[in-house]
Structure formats: C-alpha cells, structure tokens
Amino acid sequence: MRNVVDGLIGEVFALCRENRAGELADYIPELAAVDPDSFSLCIATSDGYVYESGDADTTFTIQSISKPLTYGLALADRGLTAVAEKIDVEPSGEPFNEISLDPVTERPRNPMINAGAIAAASLISGDDPAQRFERLRRCYSRYAGRELTLDDAVYRSEARTGHRNRAIGHMLRSFGIISGDPDAAVDMYFRQCAIGVTCRDLSLMAATLANNGVNPVTHQRALAPELVERVLSVMTTCGMYDAAGDWVTQVGLPAKSGVGGGVLAVLPGQIGIAVYSPRLDAHGNSVRGVQACRELSKRLELHSLNVTRPARWATRPIAAFGGAPSRPRRGPADRDSLEKVGRRARIYELHGDLLFAGTETAVREITDQSGELEAVVVDIRRVDDVSGIAGRMLADLHDDLDRQGCQLALVDPEGLLGHTTSELVPAAGGRVFVDLDAAIEWCEDTLLERHCAGDRLPESITLAEHPLLSALTAEQFDGFAHGLEIRTVNRGETIVRRGDRAAGIFLILAGRVSSTLQGSDGAVHRITTLAPGMTFGEMPMLVDDRFLNDVHADSDVRLAVLPPDRFARLTAEAPGLKVALLEGLAAGAYAQMEAAIRSLAPRGRLG
Ligand code: GLN
C-alpha cells in the first residue's frame, strides 16, 4: 500500500517529469538509442525497502556510476597506500573525460574522472582479463543484490568509438600510472561502464553504501566500512565532476552520475537514492537526475551537512522537589540532611543518540559542576544509541569523577554502555542501576553517610515503631500485636508471587524488599523498593484481588503479617482499631502517590 512517502516522492517525480531539457549522450552511438523520456526515481532505505516510481525496471548502462565501485574494489585489492600512489583524491574542476594529470603529482586527480577510473580499473586483481572483469561484475552484483550482466551492444559501441579514453590509457601508461597493457585497462573500463542496471538496482547500490557497505536486502557485504568512508568522501568532492561544488551546496549528498542517465546519491546511515533519466546537461549529468535530487534534498531535508540535533540532556538536583527523596519514608534526620545537601547530587537525563557533540556538552556541564558535586546520576534510559566515542567519554568521565570523590550512578537498564546492570561496581566509585529510583537512593545514601550527623533511619524497627501503628492506643496496639505473625525471610527469597491470593498486610520491620514485574521480554523490572516502616499486601486484600507483582527480599527481612481473616474480623470485634489501621494505610498510600506525582512533574527547568 502506498504511504505518505510515496506521496512525497510522487510530487518530485511529477515535477521533474515535465522537464524535457538536455540531450542524450551520442558520442557512444548505442546510448542515443534509448527512450529519451524514460524516467524513474527510487529511494531504498537502509533496511531494504524500495520506494519506486516510473520505469524502475528499465535497464540502462551504469557508465560512470561504476567508478566509485571499481575504486572501492581497487582499494580492497591493493590497500589505501598503494592506490593513493596512483590516484589522488582532489576535485579536478574539469570535465570527466579530460586528458590530464595533476601537473605536480603527475597522477590522475581523482578516481571519478576517466583518467582516475581507468587507473583504478587497472588495479583490479585477477589472473587474466576475464577473471578480473568477473571479479568486478560479482562485486557490483553484491551491491545490487542480484546478478548483473554486461550490455554487449553498449560495450561494443564504446569499444569502437572510445579513442579519447584510449588516449587517456596511453597517457597513464607513459607516466607509469598503469604498468601493464593500457588497452587492457581501457577495455576493462569500457566493460564496467556497460554493465546493465535498473533504477531499482541503483537505489539498492546506494543503500548498500548508506548501510556501511552491506546490502540491506541480502545482508552481503560489498565493501569494508573503512573503505565506504573513503569512497563516499571522494564521491562528495568529485562525484559530479565540474558541477561538484554546485551539487554539494544544493544537494549535499555524496553522489555519482553516469552518461547512461543514472544518478546515485547516498545519505550515509539512512537512504540510497537513484534516478534514471537519460537527457544530460553540459556536464554529462542527468538533467532530471540533478533536479530530482535537489528537490528531494530540499523537501526531505536530506542535505548531509544539515545541522541535526544531537543528544539533548536535562539536569536537576537530586532533591529538587522540596526534598522528596527516593523513598517515601526517610527518617527526619535523613530528610533534614537531604534538604541541606541534596544539591550536592544531580541527575542528568540524556536523550536521543549520543554522538560526540551531545555527549560533549553533557560531560562539560557535569565536569564544570563536579567541584560542588558528590554524586551524579546519569540516566540514559531515553538514549537510543551510544556511539563509540560517547561510550569512551562517559567511561573517562567516570574516572575523572572518581578521582574527585564524586560517585557516579548510571541508569542503564539495557546495558547500552556494555555494563551488566548488577549491583557490581564497574569501576571504583560507580554503579549501574536498572532504574532511576534505586540510583537516586544510592546517591542519597552516599550524601547521608558523609553528612548526616543525626540518627539515620534504623535498618530495623520494633513493631511499636512502625508508622502504621503509631496512631493506635496502647490497648489497640496490644490487641493488634496479638494476632500478628512475625516472619523472617532470607535474602533472595520470593515473598509473594504475581497471581498469589491476598495474604494480609505485611509490615516491614527490617531489611529491604522490592516489588518487581517480569516484562514481556523476560527481563525483571523493579517497580519499587520498600524499607522498614513501610507495608505491602494491603492493596490485593482491600480490593479483593490477587498480587499484581512479585515481591522479593533484597536482604534478610523481618516482617509482621496481619492475615486477611484476622483483618476481616476486626470490623466486628474492634472497629476503632480497624479505622485507625485504614487511616494509617490511606496516609501511607497518599504519601507514596504524592512522591510518585512529584517525580513525574516537568523536569529540567525546576531547581
Ligand atoms: N563510458 C563513459 C566514458 O568514459 C562514461 C562517462 C560517464 O558516464 N560520465 O566516456
């Protein structure tokens, strides 16, 4: 089914179809035999989808679009240095068929003009001419993802008339650029130019370059990544001959044209574009091809030098929300301390793709602040991709912070930075967390250990100290404590499972428990961590439902459990006690909800 992209491409297609300017190439007689109005525009994505319009399956000869492909194969066969000794990479500003070498280096100026292309053809490895051409044909076929063949009529036509190219071949021989038979090199070049392609093929060839050398449909590699960069660079500066400057300014994509009427353009990492329309301008570039690429670049914002937005980030102090700490319940001393020193810890949330520039601004800001900071949370949950350099920068930042005594908590549940999200410390002074809450809590603990002189929240409390029971009278307390079961659970054990029946109110007296959910991907997601003074299990009991998540003991845990039947009986036996308990539960629930809402409040500009 057509989608909006077909519509966008269709508009460009319709616009350019009206343009009948330009002439067929006729210096190769066979090229003048094609339908001058034939027109196709294809865009292939780097996952192999092809948008087609017009005569997408009409075969024409690749001509000079072969040049970057042969150059790539020569680089693979001989290595960068050996090829660079024969062919420069400077734009020539000359027509493609100029009989010239650079006067200083005495080398062809670049592999996109005929002199450089014939030199590149002479560098293809193989035992004999037939084998060399077969290697080249197979290489082109890997780009296209299908077996390409030679158009014999076009080949013979150029072989009969290509005296200028023969002259170039002999010039190259006399300057020692070609060491073997110059006619064999020129013949190889004529053959490569006469390989038949469709516009669809060309778009996939372009997408293969966009996809770092791997055909997006067959997944076969056509060119090594380091050579892709080289080939695209040369296409950018020299691909459109003496119109290269105009092209880079207006279209901004590495590209190559051929006198057969094809144009191939690449937006690295994104898409491949191909146009076929055989009427040519004075430079030998397809008139509609140039126009269509210019329009597409403008309308689809494809200029490769277009300033894209790198990763964005937002920052806030850890205690920005009136000291709402990670856990609803911290002791008063903890709260006071966090109120005072919470600004010594900050949260940095990074978004988008982490490339050099976005990471640079975040790292600069964190480093600038690091004199005042003792703990930093870097939250990369909304980051899509981490470039190699960004990963290194964050690792180095980690080391820098560590030297300054500043802790780094990385929230990276998907392990984008390659750490496992265990409790393990990947390097001194840092930890990786699956969720923000746990990271904040760890940073808060760091601050509290350093600054809180008062009584920290005890790791265990007595039943009487549990806040749920704080509003009870002595008599109610005794009545309540009577029916409780005290339970100890070892670290790592599961206390309840999703789907279990309601099992009463669990009051935490010592240790930590986490409620978790298993995602559809099988990964375990922590919802919240609960500490002494908090409760769980009341929800399924009050709404008469089953547990919606698992509850695990993160440490050795001591619990007091009020069973459901006992809770039910209180209505008749001790209504005042039941009301007090329900009030306590409601207060706790509202406090948690308040903390949750605050944590969702707009970030970045606060504090
Ligand atoms: N075979 C053609 C030639 O050498 C290719 C030129 C081109 O496509 N620009 O003349």
Q: Main attributes?
A:
607 residues; alpha+beta; Beta-lactamase; Transcription Regulator spoIIAA; 20 helices; disordered C terminus
Report on the structure:
With 607 residues, the protein is an alpha+beta fold. The protein has three domains: 4-299, DD-peptidase/beta-lactamase superfamily (Beta-lactamase, 3-Layer(aba) Sandwich), CATH 3.40.710; 318-451, STAS domain (Transcription Regulator spoIIAA, 2-Layer Sandwich), CATH 3.30.750; 463-603, Jelly Rolls (Sandwich), CATH 2.60.120. Helix content is 40%, strand content 17%. It contains 20 helices and 20 strands. The strands form five sheets. Strands 2-1-7-6-5 form a five-stranded antiparallel beta sheet. A five-stranded mixed beta sheet has the order 8-9-10-11-12, with helices on both faces. The chain has a four-stranded antiparallel beta sheet with strand order 13-20-15-18. It binds glutamine. Glutamine binds at residues 63-64, 96-97, 114, 158, 165, 193, 258-259, 284.
| Beta-strand content bin | 15-25%
Mean pLDDT, as a whole number? 88
Largest sheet: 5 strands, antiparallel
How helix-rich are the residues, as a percent range? 25-40%
Do you know the CATH topology of the largest domain? Beta-lactamase
Unreliable runs: 320-325, 421-428, 602-607
Quaternary status: single chain
Across the major sheet, the strand order is: 2-1-7-6-5
The rounded Rg comes to: 35 Å
Ligands in the model, by name, code or SMILES, are:
glutamine
- CATH architecture label name of the largest domain: 3-Layer(aba) Sandwich
Looking at the structure, what is the overall shape? Answer: elongated
CATH class of the largest domain: Alpha Beta
Structural class: alpha+beta
CATH superfamily of the largest domain: DD-peptidase/beta-lactamase superfamily
Compute the number of helices. 20
Total tally of structural domains? 3
Count the E strands. Answer: 20
State the end-to-end CA separation.
50 Å
